[in-house]
Design a protein that fits this description.
Blueprint: E1 11-16, E2 20-25, E3 51-57, E4 62-67, E5 72-76, E6 90-91, E7 101-107, H1 112-121
Antiparallel strand pairs: 1-2, 1-3, 2-6, 4-5, 4-7
């Protein structure tokens, strides 16, 4: 059983232990009250195996996929197909025979303004405030 708290808008990413997954619009999931039976978010077949993750994501986010042997793959959410709720999904990561997908983490996308601010904050040697190793000598 996997639970998910949904805030705002976006898609739900579901992934299986064999490396398959998909994006499903939030509108495809009905609202249930307490004691509801739940809904199928990803078909669990012999090809897919068990569901290992369900995350709410935005198209600007990226994902870090983690395998049982320590392989890490970073991929943009925008590259994953948006399909219906009760389907099997597409391949997210190619795994070896004995490997399994063990986890997925969302990496929030940077805003355009944030990216420029971060690259300018580091500075380069020789710029004002930079330390280029030279000592200033002032005349007395």
């Amino acid at each position: 059983m996997i639970a998910l708290l949904v805030l705002g808008e976006g898609h739900v990413l579901t992934a299986s232990e064999t490396g398959y997954g998909k994006l499903t619009p939030l509108e495809d999931f009905p609202l249930h009250g307490r004691g509801g039976q739940g809904v199928i978010a990803l078909q669990t077949t012999e090809r897919n195996g068990a569901t290992v993750a369900a995350l709410q994501v935005q198209s600007s986010d990226e994902l870090m996929l983690i395998s049982s042997t320590g392989t890490l793959v970073r991929t943009p959410v925008a590259d994953i197909s948006v399909v219906g709720r009760n389907t099997q999904g597409v391949r997210l990561i190619r795994l070896g025979e004995a490997e399994r997908l063990t986890g997925i983490e969302r990496v929030a996308g940077l805003e355009v303004g944030e990216d420029a601010a971060q690259s300018g904050a580091e500075g380069t040697p020789g710029e004002a405030g930079g330390d280029d190793g030279a000592d200033e000598i002032s005349p007395t």
